[in-house]
């Protein structure tokens, strides 16, 4: 499928006429062309957004709600088509796209459609003084998203931005642009006025950078790597733009011997390898209390060996392909590095050669490595693939030191039935999200984001509505 930009309510070719190849990870074949947009396309999108802003920002909330609900329903009506596009573009299993990615994208629009109906601002009382705070839309905002959960994360930014009354310049990852492309048509049918949402495709350093440096774009919501986040902050900070940065992770999964073992084991397989380990919340460093370690290692490795990696469209495949050739090579090189650092590969550790039409695809066996120190590169740097390390710990203090030893701080998972320990450790874990005896149990009302090199700011619920609005205090002496 050859795709186009969506600007001012219409699908248009990039101004420069240039395109880049899009690939299907399952086969490694070129699947279509993507606009290689640049600063000129962003300028057109910003012009359309600025023109649409006064009407959208002043539209009655109930009407805005109705349009966002229509988009949500439109996504569900296109579930099969969107799931096929998502799976083909990213290599994830069709089942994952059908049951997780696309339903969540629909929920993002439904959730923020409802949020805008309830969003309220503050009023502060003094005798004879009326002091209230307006929360007005920021204006034209930029939303830049990564490839691992394409429509899921794209809509997670766009929905609150629109709900709060902003016009949006959205840029999906150039690695997985298809579902964002299809979203344009759904928005148009849902009654979204032209210019309110504009979607430009292309590379980060060209079209992404053009969004970040455009002076008319007043806020940037970015999800992606820490490296790109730092570059965006460098450009946007001196322009005093509002910034929300959701960046990389290297999440610890801490397992105490008193946990519910079966639930922990089954969940740890998922939290290590779901979506080929390409979820920013996956637990990539597994720390296990010493007394439980030998049993855990044997049971865990036995289960991981049973995971079927295969054709993403096959119902029996649990994992599909990783997202790109570059990422495939990166993950394999990380496994080589782990071996050089003295790690012992307990299972996986190699690419999987598929037969027939999948022969050129990018498949990696789920990999478990032991015997590494907390300080080695393998345990410090994000891999973002189907690779986990496991290691024993002596006590709570030891577990905490290991867990907090990386520059990242997105999420942490804790397995224990000791409530006092939960409380002690949750306070000390350097992470924006702590899951206890569960993983990826999401409530869209809760704050979402990381500390340290995992980012700045929070998404979700009122946090997102506040990010996408400017508070203005009005004080009247009566
Ligand atoms: P990436 O940083 O390479 O790209 C993300 C997006 O930013 C893409 O759309 C890309 O084109 C764009 N981009 C790249 N350079 C840019 C620049 N200089 N200016 C503007 N835009 C630019 O990340 P990726 O490889 O697509 O995604 C994987 C990363 O995302 C991992 O590090 C993962 O941990 C992170 N991630 C974080 C979260 C979270 O919520 N914290 C969620 C998902 C993924």
What would a concise description of this structure say?
The protein has 478 residues and is α/β, with parallel strands linked by helices. Helix content is 40%, strand content 23%.
The CATH topology name of the largest domain reads Aldehyde Dehydrogenase, Chain A, domain 1
Total strands: the figure is 22
- Radius of gyration, CA atoms, in whole angstroms: 23 Å
Domain unit count: 2
CATH homologous superfamily caption of the largest domain: Aldehyde Dehydrogenase, Chain A, domain 1
CATH class of the largest domain: Alpha Beta
Name the strands of the widest sheet in spatial order: 14-15-16-13-12-18-19
Q: How far apart, in Å, are the first and last alpha carbons?
A: 63 Å
pLDDT averaged over residues: 98
The class by helix and strand makeup works out as alpha/beta
Helix content: 40-55%
Q: How many helices?
A: 15
Which strand-content bin applies to the residues? 15-25%
Main sheet characteristics: 7 strands, mixed
CATH architecture of the largest domain: 3-Layer(aba) Sandwich
Shape field? globular
Ligands present: nicotinamide-adenine-dinucleotide
Which stretches are low in confidence, meaning pLDDT under 50 for 5 or more residues running? Answer: none
Describe this structure in words.
- With 478 residues, this protein is α/β, with parallel strands linked by helices.
- It folds into 2 domains: 5-247 and 454-477, Aldehyde Dehydrogenase, Chain A, domain 1 (3-Layer(aba) Sandwich); 251-443, Aldehyde Dehydrogenase, Chain A, domain 2, CATH 3.40.309.
- 40% of the residues lie in helices and 23% in strands.
- It is built from 15 helices and 22 strands.
- The protein has helices spanning 39-58, 61-77, 79-90, 94-118, 150-163, 178-190, 204-213, 226-236, 261-273, 293-305, 325-340, 377-380, 396-403, 419-428, 461-467, and strands at residues 5-7, 10-12, 19-24, 29-35, 123-126, 129-137, 140-144, 167-171, 197-199, 217-223, 242-246, 251-255, 283-289, 344-347, 367-370, 387-393, 408-409, 411-415, 433-436, 451-452, 455-456, 469-477.
- A 7-stranded mixed sheet has the order 14-15-16-13-12-18-19, with helices on both faces. The protein has a 6-stranded mixed sheet with strand order 9-8-7-10-11-21, with helices on both faces. It has a 3-stranded antiparallel sheet with strand order 5-6-22.
- α2 packs antiparallel against α4 (94-118), α4 runs parallel beside α5 (150-163) and α9 crosses α10.
- The radius of gyration is 23 Å and the shape is globular.
- The mean pLDDT is 98.
- The protein binds nicotinamide-adenine-dinucleotide (NAD).
């Amino acid at each position: 499928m050859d795709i186009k930009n969506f600007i001012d309510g219409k699908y248009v070719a990039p101004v420069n006429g240039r395109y880049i190849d899009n690939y299907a990870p399952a086969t490694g074949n070129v699947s279509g062309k993507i606009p290689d947009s640049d600063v000129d396309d962003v300028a057109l999108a910003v012009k359309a957004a600025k023109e649409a802003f006064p009407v959208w920002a002043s539209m009655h909330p109930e009407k805005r709600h109705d349009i966002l609900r229509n988009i949500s329903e439109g996504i569900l009506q296109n579930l099969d088509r969107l799931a096929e596009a998502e799976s083909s573009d990213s290599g994830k299993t069709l089942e994952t796209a059908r049951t997780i990615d696309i339903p969540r994208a629909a929920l993002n629009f439904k959730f923020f459609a409802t949020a805008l109906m309830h969003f309220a601002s503050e009023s502060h009382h003094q005798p004879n003084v009326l002091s209230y705070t307006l929360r007005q839309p920021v204006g034209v905002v930029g939303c830049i998203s990564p490839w691992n959960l394409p429509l899921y994360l794209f809509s997670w930014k766009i929905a609150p931005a629109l709900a709060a009354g902003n016009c949006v310049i959205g840029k999906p990852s150039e690695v997985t642009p298809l579902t964002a492309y299809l979203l344009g048509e759904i928005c148009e049918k849902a009654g979204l006025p032209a210019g309110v949402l504009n979607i430009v495709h292309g590379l980060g350093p060209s079209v992404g950078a053009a969004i970040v440096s455009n002076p008319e774009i007043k806020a940037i919501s970015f999800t992606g790597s820490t490296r790109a986040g730092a570059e965006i902050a460098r450009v946007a900070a001196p322009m005093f733009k509002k910034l929300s940065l959701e960046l990389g992770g290297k999440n610890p999964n801490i397992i105490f011997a008193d946990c519910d073992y079966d639930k922990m084991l089954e969940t740890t397989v998922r939290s290590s390898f779901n979506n080929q380990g390409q979820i920013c919340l996956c637990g990539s460093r597994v720390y296990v209390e010493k007394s439980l370690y030998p049993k855990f290692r044997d049971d865990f490795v036995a289960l991981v060996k049973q995971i079927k990696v295969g054709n993403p469209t096959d119902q029996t495949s649990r994992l599909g392909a990783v997202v790109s050739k570059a990422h495939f090579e990166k993950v394999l090189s990380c496994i080589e590095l782990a071996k050089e650092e003295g790690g012992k590969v307990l299972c996986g550790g190699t690419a999987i050669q598929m037969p027939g039409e999948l022969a050129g695809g990018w498949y990696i066996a789920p990999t478990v490595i032991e015997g590494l120190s907390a300080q080695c590169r393998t345990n410090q740097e994000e891999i973002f693939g189907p690779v986990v390390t496991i290691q024993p710990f002596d006590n709570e203090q030891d577990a905490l030191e290991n867990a907090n030893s990386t520059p990242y701080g997105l999420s942490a998972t804790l397995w224990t039935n000791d409530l006092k320990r939960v409380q002690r450790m949750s306070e000390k874990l350097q992470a924006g999200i702590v899951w206890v005896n569960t993983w990826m149990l999401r409530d869209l009302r809760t704050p979402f984001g990381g500390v340290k090199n995992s980012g700045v700011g929070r998404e979700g619920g009122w946090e997102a509505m506040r990010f996408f609005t400017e508070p203005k205090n009005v004080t009247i002496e009566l």
